[in-house]
Specification:
Blueprint: H1 3-15, E1 17-19, H2 20-27, H3 32-41, E2 46-54, E3 60-68
Antiparallel strand pairs: 1-3, 2-3
């Protein structure tokens, strides 16, 4: 795993969750859903939680927050 995917995984492991805005701002990753899809195919337990917020125009919107559930060791 290289580049944006590795950066997203490190972020998830460090902070426990990530949103598209965080992925774009921090890593330039504009296809976070695809990255998460592939992590799930690899067996990672990642929950999608829909959040309510406002867009840049102040209008109500929803966005996905991806939460990594790591097994206790």
């Amino acid at each position: 795993m290289r580049g944006q995917r590795a950066a997203v995984l490190d972020f998830l492991k460090t902070y426990g969750s990530i949103t598209s805005r965080q992925a774009i701002d921090n890593f330039g990753a504009t296809r976070l859903a695809d990255i998460i899809f592939n992590f799930r195919k690899m067996g990672m337990d990642i929950e999608t939680k829909m959040m309510a917020g406002k867009n840049r125009f102040g209008e109500a919107c929803q966005y996905a927050k991806y939460i990594l559930h790591e097994e206790e060791q």
